Amino acid sequence: STISIQARFEGTKYTEGLAATNQIVVGGAFLDGHKIEVGTQESNILTVDGKAVCAAFPSTFRSADGSFTLTYDDQGEVPDVVPAENPKRVVHMTLPLGITVTVFQWKNYLDVQVTMKAQPGQDGACGNFNGDHSDDTTETIMKRIGARVRPSENLLSGIAKIDFTPQMQKMMAAECAVEKRATAQSACTMELGELAAVKNMVVSCMFDTCFGMNVRARSHAKTYA
User: Fold this and answer.
1) Residue 80 to residue 63: CA distance in whole angstroms
2) CA 46/CA 90 separation, integer angstroms
3) Is 35 within 8 Å of 3 (Cβ atoms)?
4) What does pTM read for this prediction?
5) What is the mean pLDDT of residues 166-187?
6) Which pLDDT does position 17 carry in this prediction?
7) Which end of the chain is more exposed for a tag (fewer CB within 10 A), N or C?
8) Which residues, other chains included, contact 60 with Cβ-Cβ below 8 Å and sequence gap of 6+?
């Protein structure tokens, strides 16, 4: 694909461990190899090609060739609620092909709005944009493209926090069929490559494969004492 928009999702204490958008990156051929990355206010991540931009607030960054612009301010209608004691910080990306990405940057999570025309082969966490909402469930999306971005295609900087508890292990043993666990282990080990050696990386990937369609899977796992 010429366009790649990736996100990292992590639990927060404010969401009782449920995943929220923690980091986003935009890249691909349509940006001529450039990469724009935004994290939470606490992360201080606002970079282009790994270099910090928009250090002042408010401010604007324009690429050297003029193909894209970032504006950092406090403008825009919030898609959710404004978290208590959170200053409003918004990153507006004006990109090639008429694409705009608006990132509402809160202390420990992000709200993201993407506006674009349908692209050939488009798919991802928001669906495939084919006008059929029935195939945009988490389960159907996972069947098409998997539970995670393959490491070889990952554009995000840093490493996600891996938290795999004994309760999650018990839940997987009790509620994920043996055949599905075996398939998940084989697929996760192959896709992760060298990262498979990182502690809990494979089992957490297996958990995502088994229960990624259940937004409250981690909360449910806590019932396994």
Assistant:
1) 30
2) 11
3) no
4) 0.82
5) 94
6) 65
7) C
8) 54, 69, 70, 71, 72
